[in-house]
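Q: I'm writing up a methods section and want to include an example of the input and output format. Could you take the sequence below and give the corresponding predicted structure tokens, formatted cleanly so I can copy it straight into the document?
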Amino acid sequence: MLLGASDFPSINAMSQVAASVLANVGMAVDYQAMDWGTVTQRRLSKAPVDKGRWSAFFTAAAGLEMFDPTGHNQIRGSGKDAWFGWPGSPKLEALRDAWLTTHDMAAQLEVARRMQIQALEGVPYIPLGQFYQPIAYHNSLTGILKSGFAVLYNVRRS
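A: Here is the clean output for your methods example:
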């Protein structure tokens, strides 16, 4: 069961393309389009697929939370406490712990490299790419941060 949010344009597009690609390579795809609120409720289910669980869903992230292992939930391997799908990877968790307790930059970079390799081997999630969300502000505003998404602090009226 593939969940797709029909009211979230970027996620809707990813979902439709993926459903088509998976079907074209011979997979049986039960694509279910629904609003984002329903997706967020359905993705909580750990029941068997025939009782409401899912096999895949699509989402997007602003990006800031993925800069380092402290906030990158999609590369957690903590089983029942992990990101939706609940991947279990003791090795990935041990590497995250090592990253958090290592204060030498070179050592942290090495741990981060090993984490990336482990995430590619264990596949707790599949990143499909990135996009930049267009943002417009009125010309009377100053202090706009060029972060790639709407950040409303630091903004002032001129």
